[in-house]
Structures are given as C-alpha cells and as structure tokens.
UniProtKB/TrEMBL annotation:
Domain Pyridoxamine 5'-phosphate oxidase N-terminal intervals: 13-94
Superkingdom of origin: Bacteria
Lineage summary: Bacteria, Bacillati, Bacillota, Bacilli, Bacillales
Organism the protein comes from: Thalassobacillus cyri
InterPro entries reported in the protein's UniProt record: Pyridox_Oxase_N (IPR011576), Split_barrel_FMN-bd (IPR012349)
The protein's name: Pyridoxamine 5'-phosphate oxidase
Pfam families the record matches: PNPOx_N
Length: 150
C-alpha cells in the first residue's frame, strides 16, 4: 500500500508505540545546512495525534529542534515502513525523576505516510539488544517510559 497518507496514527501504530520502539528520527541542522538521522527508542504515542520521546539534553537533536522544529520519524513494523512528519517542541530540558540528563520532546503529527516500495512488505521488524547491564537498562527503560507517559 505504498504512498497511503493519513493525518494520525492507525490502531496498530498506536499500540506499537505504547512501549519502547526502535525508530529513526530525522532533524535538520541549521549549522551544517543538512538533514541528520538518529536512531532512538524511548518513544511513546501520547494519542493518535502526538508522540513523545526522550533524548540526552546535550544532543544535537535538541539543538536542531530548537532551530528547526520540522521532524520526520521513521517507523518500521511487521508489515511496512512509515514516515511520520510533524512539528517538535521541547517540553522540558530535564526530566527530573531520571538519573540521566534527558529532554522530553513532543511531536504534533501532521502526516503519516506509508513509504514502503511497491510490491514488498517487511517480513520482520527491527530487533535490537541492549549491550550494557541488562538489569540497569531495563530499569532505566521503565523510568523513561513512565516519565513520558506522565
């Protein structure tokens, strides 16, 4: 179903984004006059019209959003690949209850586009493993996702 365009998340996308999910975030760097892509996982669908995510508050992502709020998040699920375009804004520079210095960012969704090339589907969504202390990673993931849901 390439090129299908919506203005909000569908039920499947919304459900997938109720827990930590691998996504690609594209921002624009005014400094370099070029797009930048980063992998993120602390993403939460607040509702079908908006996403919340957390990143290190010293990240170039925060600087880019402050100067150019247009972003695109890429979601790869078990069927297709979606481009989620929207306007981002920093809600807080530091999430208080998290030991890391994380910014909380909201994206108002303007467009959700199926960008999978014609005649294909994703047979398996992206999987990843945390490469540091698994218990510490799980604890931090719970803290961050809980903070995003508040």
């Amino acid at each position: 179903m390439a090129n299908q365009v919506e203005h909000l998340l569908n039920d499947t996308q919304y459900e997938l984004l109720q827990e930590e999910t691998f996504m690609l975030l594209s921002t624009y760097s005014q400094e370099n006059q070029s797009p930048m892509v980063n992998a993120i996982s602390w993403v939460y669908a607040k509702d079908k019209h908006s996403l919340l995510f957390a990143v290190d508050n010293r990240s170039v992502i925060v600087r880019n959003i402050n100067t150019s709020p247009n972003v695109v998040l890429t979601l790869i699920d078990a069927e297709s690949t979606y481009s989620i375009k929207g306007k981002a804004r920093i809600l807080t520079e530091r999430i208080g209850e998290i030991p890391l210095k994380l910014a909380k960012i909201e994206v108002d969704i303007e467009e959700v586009r199926d960008v999978m090339f014609y005649g294909a589907k994703i047979s398996k969504g992206p999987d990843y493993d945390k490469t540091y202390d698994k218990q510490a990673a799980a604890k931090l993931d719970r803290q961050v996702m809980s903070a995003l849901q508040k």
